[in-house]
């Protein structure tokens, strides 16, 4: 009875668009997208938690803007693709018997893990772009762990389905001379309408035989074009927070490209960090500690030093980025004051909480464009942007561009 009912449900869900060819086309786009997100996400993670001995590129200065922008844009585009893929294959859930072997059980378990991890990964990633965290776990560590789970499950899934993928990878190898789709081999998951349901007898069989075959109201091409348009639409309406050309269409993104004090968005204001009093205190000093001597520099002392101008982007893990003009003292000039060139630095903020300090590796500390910034876009730093002084460096995440500086210490 259960098998008959499931066959009836599956036949009712059948559609010419639910074909292995459709599943393979969507699957290869999903696979490519997840690999792009995995690579760019791994790069961002290692920038924040580098392995011992790792060194990073400081050129091009927009490197992190490119990688993290791609991470968020591609991740957003994957949402319609994942939904379309599941629409294509979910009638297979009603196969009877649901498991025919141990290998089949493991395959279904791996697919369940892959789908669940992908949904959680994309949903939490989207929420992160809005800085909305309605869950008890830490986002970054969970996001990182899920990425590995997805890549592992995806590799196993591709290995299991490789014969099907190879057969339906190219249209030319899956159609006859007239362009019609070739029959689906046993075990490939025929998702098209079936005139008869296998292994079903009695009243259910008679109902199935009398039921009309679903018309081709939605073709494979329609599904693929519609999915492509949906992905393009979500990208066009959200990517304007990092791509100036799409800024006029930026209606669904959480922030505008030039919105904020001095034309720059702010993730954490001085009020939220509770630093206004300290930031505006005339007695503020920046302490630079070397291995043998230290100096305490006032804002006037810093302004009296040689100033460097740098056009650098600020790019955040949430996906937004924008170009800005910075002016301040090169970190390597401060290193010269305490005799500590070619060293690694610990940069501390007087704000509390996560990312109140960051490690500035040698390659960044020695870069001439790594600054203790005092001005932004031709004006004195706004307090929300880190007044009296903040760190800015090429090719690094915005979360590591520490604001409201207290000290620089040689590691």
From TrEMBL:
The keyword Translocase belongs to this UniProt entry's keyword annotation: no
GO biological process terms on file: respiratory electron transport chain
Alphabetized InterPro entries for the sequence: Di-haem_cyt_TM, Mopterin_OxRdtase_euk, OxRdtase_Mopterin-bd_dom, OxRdtase_Mopterin-bd_sf
Entry's Gene Ontology cellular component terms: membrane
Record field: transmembrane: 24-47, 68-90, 110-133, 145-169
Superkingdom of origin: Bacteria
Key words of the record: Membrane, Transmembrane, Transmembrane helix
Molecular function terms from GO: oxidoreductase activity
Residues covered by the Oxidoreductase molybdopterin-binding domain: 282-410
One Pfam family named in its UniProt record: Oxidored_molyb
Protein name (record): DMSO/TMAO reductase YedYZ molybdopterin-dependent catalytic subunit
Species per Swiss-Prot/TrEMBL record: Amnibacterium kyonggiense
